[in-house]
Every structure is written in structure tokens, then in C-alpha cells.
Specification:
The complex is a heterodimer. Chain A is of the alpha/beta class. Chain A contains 18 helices and 16 strands. Chain A folds into four domains: about 120 residues, Rossmann fold, CATH 3.40.50.2300; about 170 residues, 3-Layer(aba) Sandwich (Rossmann fold); about 70 residues, Helicase, Ruva Protein, domain 3 (Orthogonal Bundle), CATH 1.10.8.60; about 40 residues, Arc Repressor Mutant, subunit A (Orthogonal Bundle). Chain A has a five-stranded parallel sheet, sandwiched between helices. Chain A has a five-stranded parallel sheet with strand order 7-10-13-6-14. In chain A, strands 8-9 form a two-stranded antiparallel sheet. In chain A, helix 13 packs across helix 15. Chain B has a five-stranded mixed sheet with strand order 2-1-5-9-8, with helices on both faces. A four-stranded mixed sheet of chain B has the order 3-4-6-7. In chain B, helix 1 links the parallel strand 1 and strand 2. The chains are: A alpha/beta, B alpha/beta. Chains A and B meet through helix 1 and helix 5 of A and strand 7 of B.
Chain lengths: ~450, ~180
Amino acid sequence: MAKKISILIVDDEESVRDSLFNWFIEDGYHVECAEDARKALTLLESEEFDIILADIKMPGMDGLEMLKRIKALRKDSIVIMMTAFATVDTAVQALKDGAFDYVTKPFDPDDLSHLIRNASKQITLSEENEILKVKVISLENVEDLIGSSEAMKNVLHQIESVAQSNASVIITGESGTGKELVARAIHANSSRKFFPLVSVHCGALSESLLESELFGHEKGAFTGAVYNRKGRFEMADSGTIFLDEIATISQKMQVELLRVLESKKFVRVGGNKEIASDFRVICATNRDLKTMVEKGLFREDLFYRLNVVNINVPPLRERIDDIPLLVEYFIKKYCTSMNRPLITIEPAALKRLEEFSFPGNIRELENMIERAIVVGNGKKISLKDLPLGREVVNPTFESLDDLEKHHISQILSKYDWNISATAKALKIDRVTLYNKIKKYDLKPAGK
Amino acid sequence: MKVENIVLISIGYFETNLLEKVLHEVEHEFMVPVRIKEGHLDLSEYYNPARNQYDANKLLKEIDATFALDQDKTLGIFDVDLFIPILTYIFGQAFLNGRSGIASLYRLRNERYGIKSDEKIFVDRIRKEIIHELGHSFGLIHCSNPTCVMRSSTYVEDIDQKNHHFCNTCKAELMKHETTGK
């Protein structure tokens, strides 16, 4: 249903206020009046109006001064100035200061309706524009969800079944597995897809910043709050809010969040008006929330409120079958964005990628491919283009002996079991190398 | 509260039988009995010499205070040029979802625009203007349907474009008002 346009009339003459009030209310607008600029500004601090129709000549603060203050409060406000004494100078000044239009009293009835219709159209277009921008972003990123492995098919199936409902979802998985992409896919396949998907990275914000980010703030609520600002919950009205790294939020914010999730109502920081918003919540974390609940670090009631559906995104090492597809996808993505011809990957390099453990998951693979395209010869990605040497710091090696055994074995393979060359590379003498081979029972591959 | 009567009050000098010509259609649109009365007001109190027009805001308040009853919808009908401070003229106005309204015949005649007099068109415009203002008093707002009587009209040509019936949407709203009183 179309939103009802709200109009604030500011004029010191009661008869003008009454006339405009009656006229607009018959057109079905939501209308309020203020008799001077001071009262209008007070009203604007607690309530938002789509259109402000203000007289220029008023006792106390005049309309032009009020226009500047309204623009300082909310720069996208539509303000129409009116006066009984039109001069070119004041009209030009009003338009320079950001007025939408300028009219002379009394108006022709048709002019007034026309003016408001144009302003309403502008509001609708701006809102549609914002929604479409978000929609384009969210649909683009769904394509990044690549995979044909059983594990990934299972995730896609879960996305499909949960998307159409309004249920809260917690997406779990290691860092870099693509949890945000799963959230975008759920949103893009839901009935809320034409409304915004608003993301908040909870871990990146301090408690007070997160509060202001989620609930918004009123001008002057704290140092630096120079504008009224909508919070993410308000921006996500009719859409979805994605709370990434939910496990990092403080106990106080957990209480606040639970209250908002239950009532779908909140108050901006420094404000006193309750705002309602219809949003769906999707959270993500790389931590085990259930254990956190047991240890008393995460509220149990909030956990159950959020954990209606749990989707676990598997790490890349558990979906090795998807690596060729992902490599192909990232090559295409980066070659296109760097405006280079499409290249391929050598089978040996691909095999090594399939053997790699990828502690950083898909994000690490993506960075690796991007780097290989930048540093490579522009034809094929080879082994030397891949920074796979870092595998020696694989966390599965707990003892120094394990690490040493693995490293010596790798260097021996590299030099085809040439003892002299290997000892030289390892900067140890040949006798020591023999001792190590014996100690770790190392043998050439195939023997 | 259920509306008991619609009361049309003619104020000033014009043929009272004009209202009798529209009575039947008004009754039919609202399904409420319509009564016609004569009222007396000293219009000089509402005259604005600077604009050579009559103050519609003051007249509406006067009709509401002097003639209107809670159980009725009362419409004051004048034959003078009405204005509100912000607009050059109006055909009429009403309290939205209130108990009263006003309408003027002054700008509804063809001869006002240098065109040959036409009684049929004149009565047709009166009928539409009365039903339109009463519609507001029953809580209806302007309608975007080009043929609905609640379509906003700036010029007489706009009044001629629409008919004197409510569209289905406005009719449904009217029924809701009759049931709930809101």
C-alpha cells in the first residue's frame, strides 16, 4: 500500500493554516500545523514530514532562516516557501538555500495541488531509487554462491526452504566461508526482496556506536550527532537486517536486541518517540553460540529467539569438489574486472589447491586467485603464482617435530631427493639431514 | 452515530427550487433523507473588500455553530464568491468527517464565463458539488477516479468531466462510515 504523504504547514496566520489544513486533508494527506518557526523545528526534531510548506514572513525567526535550520537537520527535506510579497531576491535566496519551490499567496487551486503532486512524486522516486540500489547490490552478490558439492547443495536447499518464511536465521561457519552471501541469497529469494537488505558488522563497532547504528539517533544525542539519523532497524523496514558477528555484542546490547526483536519497536538514541519497523533478522557468527550460552556469555532467551533456523556453511576443506568451480569463477571475475583476457590454471596448480587446507576458506582462495592473475604471466596460473608455501604454518602441526618432518619432506620432494641440494637449501650438513631422514622415517614417494 | 438527515440550507437570494431539483439524487447517493431549509445570515460580516469575495472559513464555522446538529449532515448553500486565504477561490469546503460543509453556486453558471446560460448544466454542477462536499462530511477524501464525484475539481470543466455518483471504492468507504460512523 502506498505510504501516506505527511505535510507540515508553518504560518503565523491561523486562517492560512486552517485553509491549508482543510485543503490537504481533503486530498488524503497527513497534515500538521505550527504557528511559528520555533514550534516547527521542535516538531521536526521528534517527527518526520515529507513536505514542509512554510511562510517566509513570520515574526521571530523568518522562513528563510528556518529553511536553513531544517536543511541542517535533514538535508533531503522538501521545503516549499510561500509568501504574500513575492520578490525575485527572496525567491532566488530560498531556492539557493535548498527550497524545493516558491509560491505566492493566494495560489490558484490547481497550482497548489500540482506543486504537492510534484513533490510527492519526487519523494516516491527517491524512495524507489534507494530500494532499487539495495536490490541490485543484493541480487548481484547471490551469484557468488558457487558450488555443486553435496555440502553446498544442502546449504542451497536450506536457503530455498527458509527464504519464504519470516523465521530468524543464524548462519554459522568459519571465517571466510561466505555467510553474508548466504544471508543475501535468503533475502533475494524471499518476499522481502524488493525492500532493503541492511548489513551491520557488529564486531567492528563499539557498544555505543552499535547502539546508534542500530537504533539511529536524534540530533544532539551525543557529540557529533549533528543530524537526525535513521538506524539500521528503521532502514530495514519491510526488508531484512543482517547482523554479522552477533557473538561479539555486549550483554547490554543483547538485552536491547531481545526487546526490539520481541516488540519490533525501538526508540532512537536521544529520542522519545517509539518507532515501529517490520524487519526479518538474519545473524551470522563463526563462534559456537550454544557453548557461549552454557558459559553465560550469550543470553539464552536471545539465542532461542534468533536460532529458529540454523544454517551451517561448511569450510572449504570439506567441499574440495567445489574448488575447480570456484577457481574458474574467480578467474572469470577478476580477469573481467581487470579487463584481461580469460586465462586458465595448470592442472598441477589446481591439484595443489585441492590439497591445500585453506584455513581462510573461500576468501583465502579468492585472494590467492586474484594475486595469481596480477603476478602471473597472463596465460596460465602455475604453481609458482600461488603462495602455497604458507601451508607450513598449518595449525594441524602441533609439535615442532611434526613441523620439521613435514618441511624436510617437502624440500626433499622439491629437490627430487637430492641430498646435497636439499641439505644446502635447509642450511644443514648432509650428515644431519641423513639423521633427520632416519629419525622421521622419511622415504621418497612411491617407495 | 447513524446520520438521520441531510439538511441543505439555502442562504441568500436564489431560486430555492434549484435544490428541489437535486434532492432526489442526493438522497439516492447517501441513502439518507434530505431536507431543504432556508437560513438567514448577514453576509456583510463575511465580506472581504480587498478581495471582493466572502471568507469561506468563517462561513463554514458559522454554519457549523448555528445550524448543524450532531445527528445530521448540514450543508450551507450560497450564491456568493467564496475564498480561503491561500486560494483565489473555492467552490465549497467541508469539515472532513464533520457535521457541516458549504458550497457556492456563484462560479457554477455558464454566464460567469461568458458562455450562453444552460439550466441543465447548471443544475448538474450543483448536484455534483453538493454530493462532493457532503462526501467529505461523511469522511471521504479526494478520489483519483476521473468519473467519481469525489474527484477534486479546480474548474467547472473538471466538474463537467465527472458524474454525480461515487465510484466503487468511495461507495465502500461510505458504507463503512454508515456502519461504523467513522
